[in-house]
């Protein structure tokens, strides 16, 4: 690990000030950043620990939730209002990592965790445009069973590994940010970038921009929501494909729907097309399949991951059918 | 700047690169906590921070200033084994023993989580305030602790013996 300066921060303004002065990176639970620093893939000269503030989940007047960025993943998953109003979020979080890691990981860090592409991690032996821009991508023609089928580029086929982000993408979550230039808000679906020519730039955040909170809008549809994660083991593995969904059916017709996919793209993939295809339609398996086809029409397989297209289709249909069948 | 390890005050290392795991093993000679992968993946380095389980290999010691850490060495009291330690012996919950300190610390905290009603991936009713500790729950909740020797059946038996009938009871 390259030497670095460490400092705590008392609040968001203090953290932003310290980061600006030293060019520091923010440190959450460290479960991703410390790992990458040990591999010398990340070499920050300074860290500002942001786990000491913004750790609360607060119900808003409009009955949405404001989740402090340093809230631990476990604390968010077990929160009574999350479990009952946004079950998809609890389900997504507990489907990820392990209890130990969820106890350490913060919500802010989870949003910005980096890909698990093995070529990205293999600093000595592989080329990676995300690690060393312009170097080339060994995953493109390499072992790419876990890689992207949607929105990839010639420069990068890595996927975003977060489960939590898939649920947040479906829930219309808003990210609150703070920087020396002031505060701003951003829909979660606009936070992560597609790789294009610059896979090393993963989000639209400016250097030193701090995530202070995530806002969940009041969203009655999310009461009936769920998460399906398909992986190589029954527990403790990153997603091959995952689907977050919420469904509101009235008289056999789909009044409203939210759908997002994980494990398929460089960003948590909101399935806008499928949603569009479903609204107002009868809630039938045939319809769910048509919507999945609409979303996946632009999916492009790599050498080893063609199975993901069919897997995504089936997983979308399965979770929608499950939600359609659930009693309220 | 200090943290409390098994009730003893310990200075936070000057170099912020030192992990909690290396502090325990290399500087405090508390070698019960094991280093398996050093990447957060195996659970051998699991310790308790105010009763919560974490992997100490990905924890920078400096981040735990002022916190109370319990390692496997701190679980036994007055020369008596923790009930779960005894249960691991009774049920052959290990072979080589390398994963065992992590398994035991992890399970002690796991029971606390169940008592608190923290749902897991296999919990069917998220709204329920109580979680029943069945074998599927134990396996899922302990999946962050790998055992290279494959002593899983004995591990699950030991956890049940120590906590199974009364997960509501104090873990310790
Ligand atoms: C063995 C293992 C298995 C895993 N399995 C899964 C899985 O199945 N599913 C899954 O979703 N995840 C999984 N993870 C990843 C885990 O969820 C992330 O490591 C974790 O969420 C990161 O949170 P953190 O607080 O530890 O982030 P850190 O490591 O502290 O930080 C990560 C990044 O976020 C930045 N950051 C942190 N907080 C802020 C902030 N407030 N504002 C701006 N930037 C910030 C940091 O600078 C850094 O770049 C796994 C991890 C491990 C080690
Ligand atoms: S050594 Fe920490 S998880 Fe493997
Ligand atoms: S007993 Fe050998 S690794 Fe578990």
Automatic annotation (TrEMBL), chain A:
Q: Which domain of life is it from?
A: Bacteria
Q: Does the keyword Flavoprotein apply?
A: yes
Q: Which UniProt keywords apply?
A: FAD, Flavoprotein
- One term of GO molecular function: FAD binding
| Coiled-coil region | none
Chain ranges of the FAD-binding PCMH-type domain:
1-221
Tagged with keyword RNA-binding: no
The UniProt transmembrane annotation reads none
Q: Which InterPro entries does this chain map to? A: CO_DH_flav_C, CO_DH_flav_C_dom_sf, Diverse_Substr_Oxidored, FAD-bd_PCMH, FAD-bd_PCMH-like_sf, FAD-bd_PCMH_sub1, FAD-bd_PCMH_sub2, Mopterin_DH_FAD-bd
The protein's name is Molybdopterin dehydrogenase
Automatic annotation (TrEMBL), chain B:
What Pfam families does the database record attribute to this sequence?
Fer2, Fer2_2
Q: Which domain of life is it from?
A: Bacteria
Q: Where is the 2Fe-2S ferredoxin-type domain?
A: 1-75
Kindly give the InterPro entries that the UniProt entry links to this protein: 2Fe-2S-bd, 2Fe-2S-bd_dom_sf, 2Fe-2S_ferredoxin-like_sf, 2Fe-2S_ferredoxin-type, 2Fe2S_fd_BS, Aldehyde_Oxdr_Iron-Sulfur, Beta-grasp_dom_sf
Q: Does the keyword Iron apply?
A: yes
Q: Which SUPFAM superfamilies match?
A: 2Fe-2S ferredoxin-like, CO dehydrogenase ISP C-domain like
The GO terms describing molecular function are: 2 iron, 2 sulfur cluster binding; metal ion binding; oxidoreductase activity, acting on the aldehyde or oxo group of donors
Q: Which UniProt keywords apply?
A: 2Fe-2S, Iron, Iron-sulfur, Metal-binding, Oxidoreductase
Gene3D superfamilies in the record: 3.10.20.30, [2Fe-2S]-binding domain (1.10.150.120)
Cross-referenced PANTHER family, in alphabetical order? OXIDOREDUCTASE WITH IRON-SULFUR SUBUNIT, OXIDOREDUCTASE, IRON-SULPHUR BINDING SUBUNIT-RELATED-RELATED
Q: What is this protein called?
A: (2Fe-2S)-binding protein
Originating organism: Rhodoplanes roseus
